[in-house]
């Protein structure tokens, strides 16, 4: 995790820049190995205090919905370290296709069930994910390399 730095000529960072920086740091916490997530979160909170920026509502939200929902403070569910597919994009993609394919004004239960039956392989979790674009594979490789640097340094 990096410390917020402002360009030398502009003076100290503005409040909105500090808040944006801390929200961005929080959004990448799941990329850390699970054993480092709590340390990363403590760092973010301490930096908020250092800059005397009140982010009480945001901090309460993260702690309630990200950390306290994980039983026994386990971050296994939160951490996506080393995983290539870090979202539920397969399900989101299917939902998008479903909405496009079925006109909401003329939908019937039978039509919905037939569509699901015909397209079930795209939502089945064991289905191999379609070949990914080279750019996304390169991004994943870069993320993994940075993650390994964190572990090894």
Low-confidence stretches: none
Output the number of helix runs. Answer: 6
What portion of residues is helical?
40-55%
User: Main sheet?
Assistant: none
Beta-strand fraction estimate: under 5%
Radius of gyration over all CA atoms, rounded? 21 Å
The assembly state of the depicted protein chains is single chain
How many DSSP E strands? 0
- Morphology: elongated
Tell me the structural class. mainly alpha
The total number of structural domains is 2
Order of helices and strands: HHHHHH
Ends apart, CA distance between termini: 13 Å
Mean pLDDT: 75
Structure summary:
The chain contains six helices and no strands. The protein is mainly α and 153 residues long.
Protein model, in words:
The chain is mainly alpha-helical and 153 residues long. The protein folds into two domains: 8-73, no CATH class; 89-152, no CATH class. The chain contains six helices and no strands. The protein has helices at residues 15-27, 34-50, 56-67, 89-101, 109-118, 134-152. Helix 1 packs antiparallel against helix 2 (34-50). The longest helix is centred in the C-terminal third of the chain and has 19 residues, at 134-152. The protein is elongated. It starts with 14 loop residues before the first helix and ends with a helix. The model has no long low-confidence stretch (mean pLDDT 75).
Blueprint (SSEs and pairs):
Elements: H1 15-27, H2 34-50, H3 56-67, H4 89-101, H5 109-118, H6 134-152
Helix pairs in contact: 1-2
């Amino acid at each position: 995790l990096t410390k917020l730095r402002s360009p030398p000529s502009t003076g100290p960072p503005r409040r909105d820049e500090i808040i944006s920086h801390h929200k961005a740091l929080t959004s990448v916490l799941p990329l850390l190995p699970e054993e480092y997530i709590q340390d990363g979160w403590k760092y973010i909170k301490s930096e908020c205090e250092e800059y005397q920026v009140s982010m009480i509502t945001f901090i309460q939200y993260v702690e309630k919905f990200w950390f306290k929902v994980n039983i026994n403070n386990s971050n296994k569910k939160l951490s996506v370290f080393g995983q290539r597919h870090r979202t539920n994009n397969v399900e989101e993609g299917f939902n998008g296709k479903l909405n496009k394919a079925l006109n909401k004004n003329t939908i019937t239960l039978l039509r919905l069930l037939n569509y699901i039956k015909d397209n079930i392989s795209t939502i089945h979790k064991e289905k191999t994910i379609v070949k990914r674009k080279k750019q996304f594979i390169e991004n994943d490789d870069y993320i993994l390399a940075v993650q390994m640097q964190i572990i090894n340094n």
